[in-house]
Design goal:
Elements: H1 19-33, H2 35-39, E1 45-46, H3 49-75, E2 83-84
Parallel strand pairs: 1-2
Helix pairs in contact: 1-3
């Protein structure tokens, strides 16, 4: 099946192109283009873990988005969660930068 022109598997919404966000999303994209093909498409979530990390970094920055992506990968292991799990559009005030453990159980 051919994908429509201009289709990207990553979030294409507006986000500030700061150096840290660009570096973080470039790292995720590098993973998608190289290692992801060897590991296989076995994510039990939608969007996949790498798509989630890309969008989280683009929306919330490298620090919060990176933690969100890491926690999502940790949820994906055997006996972990599954299903639809979108990135929240905004973070609540209790999700402060100095408390990344609070990002463990995010609800959109």
């Amino acid at each position: 099946m051919a994908l429509p022109a201009g289709y990207s598997r990553n979030w294409s919404g507006p986000w500030p192109k700061t150096p840290r966000r660009v570096l973080g999303t470039a790292f995720v994209r590098l993973y998608q283009l190289t290692l992801s093909g060897f590991i296989g498409n076995s994510c039990r979530h939608f969007p996949t873990c790498s798509e989630y990390a890309y969008e989280a970094i683009a929306r919330h920055g490298l620090w919060a988005g990176g933690w969100m992506g890491l926690f999502r990968v940790m949820h994906c292991g055997p006996g972990g969660t599954h299903g639809i799990d979108p990135v929240p559009e905004i973070l609540q005030p209790r999700h402060a930068w100095w408390a990344p453990w609070r990002l463990w159980k995010l609800k959109p």
